[in-house]
Design a protein that fits this description.
D-Maltodextrin-Binding Protein, domain 2, ten-stranded mixed β-sheet, two-stranded antiparallel ribbon, DNA-binding, 294 residues, homodimer, 3 domains, Arc Repressor Mutant, subunit A, alpha/beta
Chain lengths: 294, 294
DNA sequence: CGGCTTTATTGCGATTTGCGCATTACTTGG
DNA sequence: CCAAGTAATGCGCAAATCGCAATAAAGCCG
């Protein structure tokens, strides 16, 4: 036979309010229904929980013993379900998103501001890591959403392109090339390039695109992170080819950002999520904000 | 809408066994039923708890968060109901009984032995107190059963007579009356009686019975408890009129117990319980043993 | 790559459960 | 002894739930 939550809830309400009628009102059912629920529960258990006359209701010894447990069951249940409905109705809940560092400081902040305004109280955890780590975080469920650049395909991963950004040339103002409106790849012969490590998805992508066009570049220095590269450029060590969003125009005095053409090469920023994995309402709302602006 | 325990139970089983079919087997329903339960729960909550294909079942983010709570709800419920059914089926549970001291050491022990043999593990708490206290303990629900002597009637109290025992005369062997086979009340003129306090139900009853018959006795000493009276008799202070069960024949060397006749006056031992108060199965079983032997 | 196996879902009919209304039964206070 | 208040019951209806059979979908393996 099936376990009867209604009966227990009825029992608790009756015991606490001291009567069937009052309990019925609170539970929004008729008193008849409560009578039946209690009868069913008692007959299922094989013992009486309430001694009742038409005049008063009183707990039996067993009922008195059971009441605290019953109360706890009911409240635990009610709370849990309430929380879930709240998550569903108001997209409440915390949210983890993985993101490559450039985007974390470029595209994300605006969305985060709008999200927090719309759903205050939701905790957001950002895993800022390399594109490969972003991919894995999404794949293994550590993050519900990921923002990165295309990497190795995986059948369980679903990618949506969000935006594209060109690679640009970064140098100091006193650099010989800094006055040009645009620069071609051929101009980079002796540019003392700081390049990103071959383990980076950025580098893999860039190499692939250049190789397709028969272009090759040589790096004098190699680092792991874009931010380090920018730092070295600023320090006068050399120049670098980096995604445009690595640094906003004029964000750092003394540094120039110059379009690279012939050809223009762009990297795609993609939004990652696991295929067949339902997003939590909180993540779903964030997802909506992300794709709404493209 | 109504809270759905079945759905949660299904969810937990599926999550833990990793599939609808296995869970269905454990819950003794068809797999179809589980599909429906989960669907109903999810649509009620407005969110998905399980991502499932025909090949595997996996928790969603929300489901993963909810699982521990759900598990705790289910196990708490299952345990609580299990305990209650155990109480009902096997008369498990603890039991409190109030009893006047003489009966606690006279009639009770045999019943307790049989009870413990039949229902091992049940804790028995005995409130050994005066007849008035026994009455109140039962009346106020501190004890489910009471063994005492008739006191003031109360509409909520139900009394069943268990046995009767005569008052007898107690003295030391060297006492002049100790050789008689029986003693009449008239013989007690100069017996140096130790009597029980007038607050005792015993005394009230005895006085009433004697007065009805125009007999009066005078006490030289007065104590509260029967056991104290016996002690004083043994110490040679005087003699006493006490219920026969106060001391078994020969239980204390040097003391005599002699029938009092002309007339024989007996006190009734009654079993008390609250009217309209259902006994716990444990108490009910004890009650059955008590009245079975009359 | 196409059939095969496995597993969840759906359509449908039958049964059961649960509810509310109206009425009854019972207790108690005046 | 009557009146008021409260729980229980008879009855009929509505909805939920289930099981069976058929269907759909996803990976496995030859």
């Amino acid at each position: 036979m099936k376990i009867d939550f209604d009966g227990i809830q009825a029992f608790v309400a009756i015991a606490e309010l001291g009567g069937f009628s009052k309990a019925a009102e609170q539970l929004h059912v008729t008193q008849t229904a409560l009578t039946r629920r209690v009868q069913k529960l008692e007959s299922y258990l094989g013992l009486r929980l309430l001694d009742r006359t038409t005049r008063y209701v009183e707990l039996t010894v067993v009922g008195r013993e059971f009441l605290p447990q019953a109360r706890s069951i009911v409240s635990e249940m009610t709370n849990a379900v309430g929380r879930l409905k709240d998550m569903s109705r108001n997209a409440k809940g915390s949210l983890t998103i993985a993101c490559i560092p450039t985007m974390a400081s470029h595209a994300l902040p605006a969305v985060m501001r709008r999200y927090t305004a719309a759903y205050p109280g939701n905790r957001i955890r950002i895993i800022d890591a390399s594109a490969v780590e972003v991919r894995n975080a999404v794949l293994h469920g550590q993050a519900e959403l990921g923002i990165g650049i295309p990497t190795e395909r995986h059948p369980d991963l679903q990618e949506t392109q969000m935006l594209e950004e060109p690679y640009m040339f970064f140098c100091r103002e006193e650099h010989p090339l800094s006055r040009q409106k645009s620069i071609t790849w051929a101009d980079l012969r002796e540019a003392e390039l700081i390049v990103i490590s071959g383990l980076s998805a950025n580098r893999v992508f860039l190499d692939y695109q250049l190789a397709r066009r028969g272009i090759s570049i040589a790096g004098a220095y190699e680092v792991q992170h874009l931010s380090t590269a920018i730092g070295l450029v600023a320090a006068g060590v050399g120049t670098a080819i980096l995604p445009s969003s690595t640094l906003e125009d004029g964000a750092r005095p003394g540094l120039c950002r110059i379009p690279l053409i012939g050809p223009v090469i762009k990297r795609k920023i993609t939004l990652l999520r696991r295929r067949n994995a339902t997003l939590s309402p909180a993540a779903s709302a964030f997802h909506a904000l992300l794709i709404e602006r493209e």
